[in-house]
Amino acid sequence: MKTLLLAAFLLAQTAAAAAPAPETLPDPAQEARARALQKEFRCLVCQGESIDESGAPLAADLRRLIRERIVQGDSNAQVERYLVARYGAYILLNPPLTTDTYALWAAPFVVLLLAAGVGIAVVRRAARRGPE
Amino acid sequence: MTGEIGQLALCLALALALVQAGAGVMGLRQPQAAQIAAGAASGGFVFVALAFAALVYGFVTSDFSIADVAHNSHTAKPLLYKITGVWGNHEGSMLLWVLVLSVYSAAIAFMQRGGARLTSAALGVQGLLAIAFLLFILLTSNPFARLDPMPFEGAGLNPLLQDPGLAFHPPTLYTGYVGLSATFAYAAAALITGDVDRAWARAARPFILIAWIALTLGIAGGSWWAYYDLGWGGFWFWDPVENASLMPWLVATALLHSALATERTGAFRTWTLLLSIMAFSLSLIGTFLVRSGVIVSVHAFASDPTRGNVILLILSAAILGALALFAWRAPRLESGAAFAPASRETALLINNILLVTALAVVFVGTVYPIALSAFDVRLSVGAPYFEKFFAPLFVALMIVLPFGPRLAWQRGELKLAARQLLPALAAAVFAAVIVVVAVRPRTIFGAGAFAVAAWTIAASFVDAALRARARTLGVAAMSAILAHAGLGVTLMGISGTTLWRLESLQVLAPGETMTIGRYDLRFDGVRLVQGPNYRAAHADLDVMRDRSVIGHLAPERRLFPAEGQETVQTAIRTTGLEDLYVALGDDRGGGSWTVRAYVNPLAPLIWLGAAIMALGGAAALGARLRARLWVPARAPAPEHA
Question: Same domain, yes or no, for A110 and A81?
């Protein structure tokens, strides 16, 4: 029923003059949520772009799909689960923390700690020598 | 005929590269061999340039008997894109790569910095690189391969690349990438000769600077190109190929700072050598990522796994060879620098820690999906990952940054520096307050980002004022002041456009108006226009403010029949502080079209800041050259930094 309403709404929008494009939602809060969300998903047929910034038809379809889910009352997490179930984890530009990604998320901290540790050792040694 | 000339020239260049490598190594003992290496380097440049000219000629005259021209050009293409199309494909871009390499070899031979032995060894290393890449071109990517029968018409060039950006972006970027080969060669030469004193850092410095300036301009130019060309108002996509150019830049920036300490006080000797090796290694890894097809990207045209394997081989040999040399020779180097915890050395060390961590973020994020795909796990690492780490690292970097120039070498006064920087702190607080009070929507990130940017920029002014008063404001000091202020300006641009961008997507019929921010856009309809090698839907929009027309924007959608592709031509009206950005969407029938409009506040500052940074680099280079050319008696080069 909701889908029908949405479809009717979309048709009405196309007919109206100088209207916001049918892709956008009338409720600014929902539209803002959709905009934020679409930066998080990869355009699957493009080259490393998010669906927020792709001209591919698939990206447009996904943008519409996200809005459909939002209108139907899905939370952001539900939209994400829905898309992952359909397209796989590959669609997420922000990889979730899983056993596959522990190393990915840990690496920056490990490097920073290592570098800082070496740095502190270097400064200490240089200080012990004392500037002449 | 030109094809054969090019082919022959490449073979001769390969022969000379062999001579250059052999004589370069022998030159360590025999001064005569060193001279031969220098001659071979100059000759190698002449022949590679000849080959390059032959390929340009082939493209300009649309000689479709050359496969590379037939696959990547078209008679109807405007002359500019026939020429730039030379490097808009795999074979030609590799030839450009080798051309730039040979320019650097010739420059090393001509300048003879750091003494005959160091120069000779550096030329030897450059010769080895030239051999590897010339063989790669001749055996796997020959730009002069013939086609028989010769096709009647060429296949054309990807329309996205038919843009003035192609004239500027790849050559600049390659000047940067390959410029790091000279630094790499000097580092290897220093390890071979064992003369890792300040002389090598001095010899390598102009090349670090040139590479850094070129990378800065190349990356910024590429980002600007993506901004106006792709039609979504974005300026950085964390695309693997963008990352491939960002990684050498991060290392080159770290290297620039660490080499400064090495040159001045002999501190961080081994670390500077390692960074030199890393910087060029990342250039090679970037070349591999782009050319091998292991990543999907707009840049990865005509990539091929076989070629990828060969580049991987070259890359492994170069990196492992250099690291082995480093592991063997570096421990013998005495690292005797002494400095207090409060000193410029420590500030540079913090700079290096943060930049190397930033590098690790980009590297891991770029390589991780490729590595996991070997285990059949497909995942993406995109902007949200990179931004989470990059933002705090650069904020930390920029908070610490102003202390560096205010601390003396070896022993500085932290309290004095902090006192001197109080006006910059005041500027930061002021900027944060302004943002909170005056700018909507209110964001804590915006206030923070502007505080940090204002802090960096104001600190540059403070530094300049204090140096002017102490009469030590030379060109060299100006370079740091400019580069640091430029970073602040870029941060303002990035935060402004990310946090306060407005966007609107509307369907407009002729005569209708849409509103975005303070602007009203009146749509006057779309007409068909014929370009040299495309047909375009050309939209006319009047930009109005307070009901009076203040400008005109004409975005287009272009269809290139030869290539069967469509591109978006955006229209941008800038006030210098804000861009009104319009792209034409699709045809909705009955004369109505979708129009996408953005207001990107402060967007121009992103590239203005990068230009200021590059200007800072140029000032440092200028100070070097002046010191070298006009006051040769005063070595080491006079400097007030």
Answer: no
